[in-house]
Design a protein that fits this description.
This protein is α+β, with helices and mostly antiparallel strands and 171 residues long. The protein has a domain of 110 residues: Gcn5-related N-acetyltransferase (GNAT) (Aminopeptidase, 3-Layer(aba) Sandwich). The protein has four helices and seven strands. The chain has a four-stranded antiparallel β-sheet with strand order 1-2-3-4. Strands 6-5-7 form a three-stranded mixed β-sheet, with helices on one face. The radius of gyration is 15 Å and the shape is globular. It starts with 13 loop residues before the first strand and ends with a strand. The C terminus is likely disordered.
């Protein structure tokens, strides 16, 4: 699958990559800024959750050239009886030193492209109330998002316990 590629502020092309045995260690070392840690789980925990739900979770690493700059984990569960939870982003982590460069926006757009290619039609975005403004800016929305934006304390996957700190969530 080809995802949108970006050239952010003169930097190298951005891409998503699957998590493999060659890059999983670097993925586990990725960390957000200290003040953001309460909003998003560490990549290692996200990968453990993805392992338990391989048919739903879609973890990917975000690269700028050869540099690992972030992690995104989407969920695609078209059979879920709850419309809200059929398609969404469970986690988005951009390394502290790589923030404010457009990498988060690229990751969200790449998930939207994957959803569109698979006819998963994202329509809603859920976020923690404390981070609603940040979620909108990551998504590149000013005042009118392309999907309905809803705040929620958690974004559960269909049939599982609520996912704390998962944002934004598209369904």
């Amino acid at each position: 699958m080809s995802y949108p590629r970006a050239n952010v502020r003169g930097m190298t092309a951005l891409r998503l990559a699957e998590v493999t045995s060659d890059n999983v260690g670097a993925a586990g070392d990725l960390s957000v800024a200290p003040h953001q840690e309460r909003y998003v789980a560490p990549v290692a925990r996200s990968l453990a959750e993805a392992y338990t739900q391989p048919s739903v979770a879609w973890p990917r690493l975000v690269y700028a050239g050869d540099d690992l700059v972030g992690f995104v984990m989407a969920a695609f569960d078209p059979g879920c009886p709850i419309d809200y939870f059929r398609c969404g982003i469970w986690r988005l982590n951009i390394a502290a030193e790589h923030q404010k460069k457009g990498y988060g926006k690229f990751a969200v757009e790449a998930v939207l492209a994957e959803a569109a290619a698979a006819a998963k039609s994202p329509r809603r975005c859920f976020g923690c109330p404390e981070s609603t403004v940040r979620s909108r800016s990551i998504c590149g929305w000013d005042s009118s998002p392309p999907a309905r934006f809803t705040t929620a304390r958690s974004s559960p996957a269909c049939g599982s316990e609520p996912r704390r700190r998962a944002l934004p969530y598209f369904a």
